[in-house]
């Protein structure tokens, strides 16, 4: 029986794809920016052909919109996407903590893991490395879901990671001075896990996610987190 998996991309096309996608997810290539095949090719010291293949792949995934002879437009976060991702994360992480708090060893192990990730976040914020902060943030939330022990839900969480990473980069990049407040939100979540209070965790997570990714819900805020 033949495999239905697509053939691997040529090395140059794969390199161009990963380079551009990393820029999209990290916020280095902001929404609304027009990308040029020639500029990316020159940056990577390769021909335009692999860059064109990378653009086509990213357009298929919904990250770029192609305009013949003009380039590729970085597609903004779709209306309602932030709300949908926040709702999904709230369900996944709250369910995992509901499971974890039933076992003292599991609760202590998760709290220790999260404390380590919070320490890395604080270091990244202190050095101004907001991209590293975003990576540690994603790892923090994934660790919570994985601790629930449900491989299907963990797999679903992994599929959200790219959307999460872009959202985190946008929220932190919009007001980097508020990044320490994001870390404080994580500290509150760890405290709820340590105390075994799943209800408090759920409420703190809801506030944390909405503050970080849905600032329009807080008209008195300037887009950051406290």
Report on the architecture of this protein.
- The protein is mainly alpha-helical.
- It has two domains: 63 residues, Arc Repressor Mutant, subunit A (Orthogonal Bundle), CATH 1.10.10.10; 133 residues, Four Helix Bundle (Hemerythrin (Met), subunit A).
- Helix content is 69%, strand content 4%.
- It contains nine helices and three strands, in the order H-E-H-H-E-E-H-H-H-H-H-H.
- The chain has a three-stranded antiparallel β-sheet with strand order 1-3-2.
- The longest helix is centred in the C-terminal third of the chain and has 24 residues.
- It is elongated, with a radius of gyration of 19 Å.
- The termini are far apart.
- This is GntR family transcriptional regulator.
- Keywords: DNA-binding, Transcription, Transcription regulation.
- GO terms for molecular function: DNA binding; DNA-binding transcription factor activity.
The rounded distance between the terminal residues' Cα atoms is: 56 Å
Q: Give, in order, the helices and strands.
A: HEHHEEHHHHHH
CATH 4th-level superfamily of the largest domain: GntR ligand-binding domain-like
Q: In the CATH hierarchy, what is the architecture of the largest domain at level 2?
A: Up-down Bundle
Overall pLDDT metric: 86
Per the CATH scheme, the topology name of the largest domain is Four Helix Bundle (Hemerythrin (Met), subunit A)
Number of helices: 9
Q: Spatial order of the strands in the main sheet? A: 1-3-2
Please report the total strand number as a whole number: 3
The oligomeric state is: single chain
Return residue spans where pLDDT drops below 50 for at least 5 consecutive residues: 217-226
Rough shape? elongated
The CATH top-level class label of the largest domain: Mainly Alpha
Question: Major sheet: size, sense and barrel closure?
Answer: 3 strands, antiparallel
Cα-based radius of gyration, to the nearest Å: 19 Å
Beta-strand content estimate: under 5%
Structural class: mainly alpha
Q: How many structural domains are formed by the residues?
A: 2
